[in-house]
Design brief:
The chain is of the alpha+beta class. It contains 18 helices and 16 strands. The longest helix is centred in the first third of the chain and has 20 residues.
Length: about 500
C-alpha cells in the first residue's frame, strides 16, 4: 500500500536525522509528522491511535517532584511574608491588547487564544503586566504584593535547563512613591535571602540601570530608534561572546562598527562602588544626564546594600540589559555560579535564577489619564531552581517523603476494623495526620511494611487486650520500640513524638 510505503520512508528519514544528530526541533517536527501518518493509517480495526504525551514544553509532576516544589514554595512565601507582602491573583488569560507592545522582541512568544467570537484573548506571558493592569483598573497607588502562578511562552523549550512553555513565576513587587532606592535595595535583599535559604550553591546578583545603558548608547553614537533593539543584543552577552554580539549589532541591526566598538569598551566592565565612582568621573558618561542620574542612584543603592551586608554577592555589571521593554531604572539578575558536579556527567548549567527591576511607566500605560505608579519588583525563576534540586535529589538518592502522615492505625488480630475506624476518626478529629489500610483484616507485617515504604514514623496498634486495658500500643517504626499509651493521652503522645524540632 502506498500509505504504508510513505510511513516507512518517513520513519527512515527520522532515523537518518537522529543518526546525523540534527537539530532537536527538526527531529521533533519529523517525528510528529510520522506519528500523524501512523495515526491516519490506523490499526487493523481502523481505530484512531493517539499518543499519550504532554504537549511540547510542558510536564507532569509526580508526588516526589511536588514534595520538592512545595518545600521551595514554602521557603519563598515565608520570605515574602517576612517582608510584609500581601497576595493577589489574576486571570490566566488577559485581553490581547493588554499584553501587546509590552515585551519588545519577545512579543512573538505570546500565546494567542483562538477567537471564540467574543474578546480577543492571550495567555499571560508574565505576572508583571497583569499586576500593572490590576493597579490601574483598581486605582491602587500603593501596595506590596506577591503572586505565584503559571505563565505561558511559545518558546523553544530546553526542559533540562528548566525552560518550559508553561511554568510558574514567583513575583514580589513594591508599588508606590517612595524615596529612591530603598524598595529597590529590599528587593535585592529578598533575592539574597531566598537563594541563601535554598542552599543552591554560590550565586551572584548582577545589577545595572536602564538609564546608564541608555546614556551609554547615546554617548557611543547609537541612534535613538535603535536603543531597544541594541539593548536586546547586549542582553545576549551572558550566552554569546562579545564578537558574536558585535557582529549581530553591525550585521543584522545596522549599527556602525565604531558605535559597536565604543559599546564594547563599556559592556565588558563590572565591579562595585569603585567602578561607579570611576564612571561618575568618565568624561563622556558624566556629560549624559540619564547616565549621571542612574549612576547617582546606583551609588545610593550600593550604600544601602552595604548596610544590609550583602555587597559580597552583588556586581555592578554594564552588560546586564534584560530584554523587556518596560524597565525604566535599576535592573538585576541573579545567576548561579558553575559548580563542579561529580554526580552528573553534565553539570546543571541553569544560568539566571531570579531577575527584576524598576518599571515606573507600566501602570501609566493602562491608566486613562496616564497617572504613573512607580514600581520595582523581582521574579524568582522557580523552574530552574526545581531543575537543580531535582538533579541533586536524584544524585544523592535522598528519600523524599511524599505524605505527611504521622501515624498508621493498625491491628494485629482479625475482626478489629470497627475499632480501627473508631480510633482513626478520633485522631483525625484531633488534627492528627493518620492513615488506615483499606482491608478488613490486614496482616500486621503488611501494615508495618507500608509504614517502612512511605516513611510513616508511628503505628498505633489496637488489640483485644489493649481495648480491655484502655490503652493503645504505639510502635516507633525506626527503632521498633513499643509503648502502651492510655487512649486519652494518645493524641498528645503522637504530637510530642512527631513534632518538628
Amino acid at each position: 500500500m502506498a500509505e504504508e510505503a510513505a510511513v516507512r520512508a518517513q520513519a527512515e528519514a527520522v532515523r537518518r536525522l537522529k543518526q546525523d544528530k540534527a537539530d532537536p526541533d527538526e527531529i521533533a517536527k519529523e517525528v510528529a509528522k510520522l506519528l500523524e501518518m501512523k495515526a491516519q493509517l490506523g490499526g487493523d480495526e481502523g481505530k484512531h491511535k493517539f499518543v499519550l504525551k504532554t504537549p511540547k514544553g510542558t510536564r507532569d509532576y509526580s508526588p516526589k517532584q511536588m514534595a520538592i516544589r512545595e518545600r521551595v514554595f514554602n521557603a519563598i512565601i515565608t520570605c515574602f511574608k517576612r517582608h510584609g507582602a500581601e497576595v493577589i491573583d489574576t486571570p490566566v488569560f488577559e485581553l490581547k491588547e493588554t499584553l501587546t507592545g509590552k515585551y519588545g522582541e519577545d512579543s512573538k512568544l505570546i500565546y494567542d487564544l483562538k477567537d471564540q467570537g467574543g474578546e480577543l484573548l492571550s495567555l499571560r506571558y508574565d505576572l508583571t503586566v497583569p499586576f500593572a493592569r490590576y493597579l490601574a483598573m483598581n486605582k491602587i497607588t500603593n501596595i506590596k504584593r506577591y503572586h505565584i502562578a503559571k505563565v505561558y511562552r511559545r518558546d523553544n523549550p530546553a526542559m533540562t535547563r528548566g525552560r518550559y512553555r508553561e511554568f510558574y513565576q514567583c513575583d514580589f513587587d513594591i508599588a508606590g512613591q517612595f524615596d529612591p532606592m530603598i524598595p529597590d535595595a529590599e528587593c535585592l535583599k529578598i533575592v539574597h535571602e531566598i537563594l541563601s535559604d535554598l542552599q543552591l550553591g554560590d550565586f551572584l546578583i548582577k545589577v545595572n540601570d536602564r538609564r546608564i545603558l541608555d546614556g551609554m548608547f547615546a554617548v557611543c553614537g547609537v541612534p535613538d530608534s535603535k536603543f531597544r533593539t541594541i539593548c536586546s543584543s547586549v542582553d545576549k552577552l551572558d550566552k554569546m561572546p562579545w564578537e558574536e554580539v558585535r557582529s549581530e549589532m553591525v550585521g543584522e541591526k545596522g549599527l556602525s562598527p565604531e558605535a559597536a566598538d565604543h559599546i564594547g569598551e563599556y559592556v565588558q566592565l563590572h565591579g562595585g562602588l569603585d567602578l561607579i565612582e570611576r564612571l561618575l568621573q568618565d568624561p563622556k558618561l558624566s556629560q549624559n544626564k540619564l547616565a549621571k542620574e542612574g549612576l547617582g542612584d546606583m551609588k545610593l543603592l550600593f550604600e544601602y546594600l552595604t548596610l544590609f551586608g550583602i555587597t559580597g554577592k552583588i556586581s555592578f555589571d554594564l552588560s546586564l540589559a534584560r530584554g523587556l521593554d518596560y524597565y525604566t531604572g535599576v535592573i538585576f539578575e541573579a545567576v548561579l555560579l558553575q559548580q563542579e558536579n561529580h554526580h552528573v556527567e553534565e553539570p546543571a548549567s541553569v544560568g539566571s535564577v531570579a531577575g527584576g527591576g524598576r518599571y515606573d511607566g507600566l501602570v501609566g500605560m493602562f491608566d486613562p489619564k496616564g497617572r504613573k505608579v512607580p514600581c520595582v519588583g523581582v521574579s524568582i525563576g522557580i523552574e530552574r531552581i526545581f531543575s537543580i534540586l531535582e538533579q541533586r535529589v536524584e544524585a544523592s538518592e535522598e528519600k523524599i517523603r511524599t505524605t505527611e502522615t504521622q501515624v498508621l492505625v493498625a491491628s494485629a488480630q482479625k475482626k478489629l476494623l470497627e475499632e480501627r475506624l473508631k480510633l482513626i476518626s478520633e485522631l483525625w478529629d484531633a488534627g492528627i495526620k493518620a492513615e488506615v489500610l483499606y482491608k478488613k483484616n490486614p496482616k500486621l507485617l503488611n501494615q508495618l511494611q507500608y509504614c517502612e515504604d512511605t516513611g510513616i514514623p508511628l503505628v498505633a496498634i489496637v488489640g483485644e487486650q489493649e481495648l480491655k486495658d484502655g490503652v493503645v500500643k504505639l510502635r516507633v517504626v525506626a527503632t521498633r520500640e513499643e509503648v502502651n499509651v492510655r487512649r486519652e493521652n494518645l493524641v498528645e503522645e503522637i504530637r510530642m513524638r512527631t513534632s518538628q524540632p
